[in-house]
Predict the structure.
Amino acid sequence: MGVEQKLGDMGVVTTTLEQAVNWARTNAMWPMLFGLACCAIEMMASQAAHYDLSRFGMELMRASPRQSDLMIVAGRVSQKMAPVLRRLYDQMPEPKWVIAMGDCASTGGVFNNYAVVQGVDEIVPVDVYVSGCPPRPENLIHGIITLHEKVRGEKITDWNG
Amino acid sequence: MLVELLRGLKTTFKAMFEKPVTYQYPEVKRPVRPRYRGRHVLKRYENGLEKCIGCALCAAACPADAIFVEAAENTDEARYSPGERYASTYEINMLRCIFCGYCADACPTEAIVLTDNYELTFTSRVEAIYTKERLLEPVRGEARPTPQQTPPGVYTRAVPKMADPQD
């Protein structure tokens, strides 16, 4: 039915719009600089030469939320930081994703007290949780690959941007 | 001026022929240190009985309260571990755990150990709770899976006899 049957074997590669867009989204997903604590050091390490996140199309961390697609919440989020985090998330253009990096951002970790938000999913929708305290750079990259797999499976009907 | 320029460019061109230091991570994994602390595993004895006796010392030692243990009674008809009790529920929340290894230090039977696996990412918080089925190491060789039927009066000691009692 599709154009790929009409074209025959002309050597033309066809794809669906869904796959093309998801491919583009996974290969140029710019993260936002959101280092809050010790996890930020590991996030820097994963950007540096030994792990080199630009292999995954994450050339540089954007300091502005308006230019970024992915928010890596690296570190513990205090109750005072929570409205700031929500505001920055709202300023990001659609489509946007969130990785909760480390135990503190995911669940609160050891900081089970009144000052720390018990998981950033209380304030923003989180796509991938990365465990570790702090996670190794490999673990963060593993989380990014998990997110890429999730984005590749997105349907047109899920797009809301 | 040209000489200085060339001297500077010499360093640049030298760097072009150096071997890149990047680990191509998903394909090539950087080896971890021998004492690296990653995901937990619950060990078994050689006959297949679980080492964990459900004492919950690991849960008491855990600074993040990531471990939940519930114990139940062993019988000779359905024996999970040596001694009186075994862990009927053993859960670790991997998103709470900070991989400090205090649980492994506290364990009197060396049942819980931390392995090299660090690839722990989840798409939901429920996935991060590792139950006993996911933590227990698989039965190997001639060992039998638990629960086992055992002769009475053999497995009375929960903690195995140590080689040197002074230690």
